[in-house]
Amino acid sequence: MDARKTSNFLEPMVPPGNTGRRGFSLLELLVTIGVISLLLGILVPSLLRVRFTNARTVCAASLRQMGLGVWSYAINNSATLPIHHDDKNDPFDTFVMCRLEDEELVNLGLVVPYVQEIGPFYCPSQDAVTSPSLGCNTPENRWVESDVANVAGISGGEIIGLAKPPKTKPGGPPEPPAGLNSSFAARTRAYKDEGLPSWKTFNHANKVIYSDFVGLDKSPGRGRFKKRISAPHGGEGCNRLFGNGSVQWADMGPLNNLRPVGPAAPNARELYEYYKLLDVLP
User: Fold this and answer.
1) Which helix (H) or strand (E) holds 114?
2) Which domain holds residue 248?
3) Within a domain: residue 136?
């Protein structure tokens, strides 16, 4: 028999006209898919962690810029911090920048002329998905309408919800409309059983004055907040602005040990205790 015509029955048959190339075997495909899945399992958590860290850093930078605006306001107002306002029914709600009842600016709404941008009033971890009423220019928290709106620094645009024309400064954003929220809450001052220091910068040098701490997580909504409210940064912690202008991170663990942050809103006493702990956490 011609040896050239013999073949090993274990070798794959090559169809006529085939150059000798063959496709991947099932085993090779399974190995390849397994390797890709393993790589994704390693890379995806790392990418999510990078995204989380970036949001936390940007949030801290925004809060630091808020501190500069607050100090500028205080210099022009005898060291008094921006007028404090909260909801009597929801003491945690000090996010409002313009009161609904009289359209007067309060809390961080009074800092707008000193900051001149919209972006720094918001934490990037609070958006239309996590907390619609605390995100930047979301449908539930609309500041301006503009086809070219840039959440890093919106200027101009059409105000929604105001009957009177907005007051503006050249190059800056319009006044926030009634009911608009920032992502950063003013320190609670609703609890009156203990003496509270006057709302001045020199009385709060080592105390938290603003933070992205909410006191709620996975809440379906309540009061002015018709939709869900989530804790910032995936519930891992919060950024705090002190009266001396410093911004520091705080892990959520000690706060949850004091009272678990969840769907139920804290009362005035509980919120007061939260802030006492936020003052001293490393």
Assistant:
1) helix 112-115
2) 45-114+182-280
3) no
